[in-house]
Amino acid sequence: MKYRVMRKSEVLRIAAVSVALALVAAWACPVASALDVNSTVKPGDATPDEIFRSANKSFRAGDKTGAIKLLEEAAETGHPGALWVLGDHYRHGDGVPVDNVKAFHIFNEIANGHADDAPSSPQAPFVASAFVALGSYYLTGIADSTVKPNADEARRLLTYAASYFGDREAQFKLGQIYADPNSADRDPTQAARWLTLAARKGHAGAQALLGQLLFTGDSSLPRRPLLGLMWLTIARAHAGGPSDDWIREMQEEAFSVAGESERRQAVKLSQQWIAKYQ
C-alpha cells in the first residue's frame, strides 16, 4: 500500500551532492551515452538518465546554471535522482534562491511517487532521503507557510524511512527524538534501538549519541559504561570537520570521568570494531 504524505504547502554541501550525483550516475550506467561534447545523442532524443548525467557533468565543470536547467528538465519526467538533487538545491540555496516550500513539494513528489519502490532499487536511497527531508520539515515547520510543526507526522515519516528503507539518517533522527530529555516522547530504550541500527551502519552522530546514552544510563536503560565509551571512541574516529566538534567534546567529557582501565578497554574494543566492520 503506497505511503502518502500530507500535501501541505547553509549553502549546499558540494561533497554531499557529488555523492548523490555519483549514486544516480552509477545506476544510470547502462545508458548508452550521456549528453556531452562527445555524445552522438541529440538533445531531443535524450532519456531522463542521460539528461541527469549531463547535469552531473555540468556541475563538475562549474556550470551551475546549465546544470539546474538540465535537472529541471529531468525532474519534469519524474526522475527521482534529479528531483532529489533539485530539491536539495532549493533547500540550501545553491544556484537558486532558498525556497523551502518548493523543496518540500519536490520531496513530497518523490515520496508520493516512489514510496513503495523496493528498498533494493537503485532509486531507494533518494526516496528514503526525501522522507527524511519531509520528516525534518515537520519537526520544525516552514516559516510563513502552511507547513507547521507536527511531531506525529515527522515521526511517522521518519519511521517509514527508517524501517522500510533502513535509512540510517532516519534511524539517527528517530534516536534523537526518543533521546531528547525535553520531549514528551522520550524513550531511552527506543532511542538506543534506533541509534544502534544507525551506529552499526557507520553513522558517527548515532555512534556518539548511543555511546552517551549507554555511558550515562537511565531508569529504563541500564548503564553500560564500557560499551558506551567504545561507541563514543568509534564516533570520534569517524568525526569530520568543525560540525562534528560536539562528538569530540562528548567523547572527551566521558573519558574525563572514566577510569583508566575503562578507557584502555574502550579504545581496544573500538579498534577491534573498526578493523572488523570498516
Topology record:
Blueprint: H1 14-27, H2 48-60, H3 64-75, H4 80-92, H5 100-114, H6 124-140, H7 151-163, H8 168-179, H9 188-199, H10 204-216, H11 225-238, H12 245-257, H13 260-277
Helix pairs in contact: 1-2, 2-3, 3-4, 4-5, 5-6, 6-7, 7-8, 8-9, 8-10, 9-10, 10-11, 10-12, 11-12, 11-13
Describe this structure in words.
Helices cover 64% and strands 0% of the residues. With 278 residues, the protein is mostly helical. It has helices at 14-27, 48-60, 64-75, 80-92, 100-114, 124-140, 151-163, 168-179, 188-199, 204-216, 225-238, 245-257, 260-277.
Summarize this, please?
This protein is mainly alpha-helical and about 280 residues long. The chain is built from 13 helices and no strands.
SS field, number of helical segments = 13
Which spans have pLDDT < 50 for at least 5 consecutive residues? Answer: 1-19, 21-42
Shape call: elongated
> Separation of termini?
36 Å
Residue-averaged pLDDT, rounded? 86
* Major sheet details: none
Question: How many whole angstroms does the radius of gyration measure?
Answer: 21 Å
H and E order? HHHHHHHHHHHHH
Strand content: under 5%
Portion in helices: 55-70%
Counting DSSP E segments of at least 2 residues, the number of strands comes to 0
Decide which structural class fits the backbone: mainly alpha
